[in-house]
Amino acid sequence: MKKKNFVTLIMSTVGGILFALGMCMGLIPEWDALKPGVVIGLVGAAILLAMVLVRRKMDGKPMIVLDGRAIGTTFFGILGAIVLGVGMCMVMVWNMLIPGIIVGIVGIVLLLCLIPVIKGLR
């Protein structure tokens, strides 16, 4: 196994576990640990972000690329993820089954539209 793959494996595992644990701590009412859960979730998210930057550096690429297409693609991906998440909340939290499914499908379509956009950039 190459060094960059091993480092990515370790950082993504630790970051993913901390992020998931923080989400559980914040969202499971029986645990009553919202504030510590938010902190642990943010630490996990920071480790995952650092993993992306470290991986790019180990690949010999610049850590951060700020061009118009990358920013637009990132915004489009975040928008699709938020729309999908709102659809999931509508179904599971707010008991709005049919509208939530429709909003979730719109989010999935937005995320699927990223594939040709990203493939066209390379």
Q: What is the topology?
A:
Layout: H1 3-27, H2 34-58, H3 68-92, H4 97-112, H5 114-121
Helix pairs in contact: 1-2, 3-4, 3-5
Write a brief structural summary.
The protein is mostly helical and 122 residues long.
Give a structural overview:
- It is a single chain.
- Helix 3 (about 70-90) packs antiparallel against helix 4 (about 95-110) and helix 3 runs antiparallel to helix 5 (about 115-120).
- It contains 5 helices and no strands.
- The model has no long low-confidence stretch (mean pLDDT about 90).
- The protein has 2 domains: about 1-65; about 65-120.
- The protein is an all-alpha fold.
- It is flat, with a radius of gyration of 17 Å.
Instruction: Please state the structural category.
Output: mainly alpha
Compute the CA-based radius of gyration. 17 Å
Q: How many DSSP E strands?
A: 0
Classify the helix fraction into a percent range. over 70%
How many alpha or pi helices?
5
Query: Ends: how far apart?
Result: 27 Å
